[in-house]
Known about the structure:
Layout: E1 2-4, E2 7-8, E3 19-21, E4 24-26, E5 44-47, E6 50-52, E7 55-56, E8 70-73, E9 76-78, E10 81-82, E11 102-105, E12 107-109, E13 127-129
Parallel strand pairs: 1-3, 2-4, 3-5, 4-6, 5-8, 6-9, 7-10, 8-11, 9-12, 12-13
Amino acid sequence: PYKVGHAYDCNKVWNYHPKMTNSLVTCCTADTMFLGTEAGGVDAALVSCTIVSNSMKALFTAFHDETHPLRLINTAFVGNVNQSGKPMDIIFQTASVTVGGMTMANCLYGTTSVDSLSDYADNGAPIYQLGKDGIASSPRFNEKGEYPYEPRCSSPLVGRGVLMDWMTDAYDVRGDIADGKYRRLRDGKVDIGCYQIVPLPGFMLRLK
């Protein structure tokens, strides 16, 4: 089942939650394979998640094909490293995911272990890479306070997500804890990742 609105800081998250929505995965240090291998043979998805500041051998280790696809939607992969400490946000285990076995839509990443992710775009959906095609070189997180991975107003995450039906009455990873302050949609727009920006009082946010 989908797991909604969680924060994880452990190894092999995907062993237990092959479908995650509105979730933060951070501070994982995996000696073996990050997100595990037990998701093989099932559909898997990351939707509106933030995968940040993890150290891993591989991000995707279960084999996925067109029969059991892996879907990545509205998800940010930033600030991750491989086991040697080299920046690497999306790391594929050799032959773990085939073209057709994974689709990406409205995701943002910095670095990857493959030459290009364009072949994985879902029907021409945008895939954003930091520092390329006019995208900022940094995710521009808040980096302080209780929610350091909330995007700032200048973040390339803001307003670049794709709208989905479940978002109409939904909240971001923080949930309904502040009189509707953390709703998943703002002015009909959705941000990439598990946080929706909350502009400061008196600040006008214009989304193109």
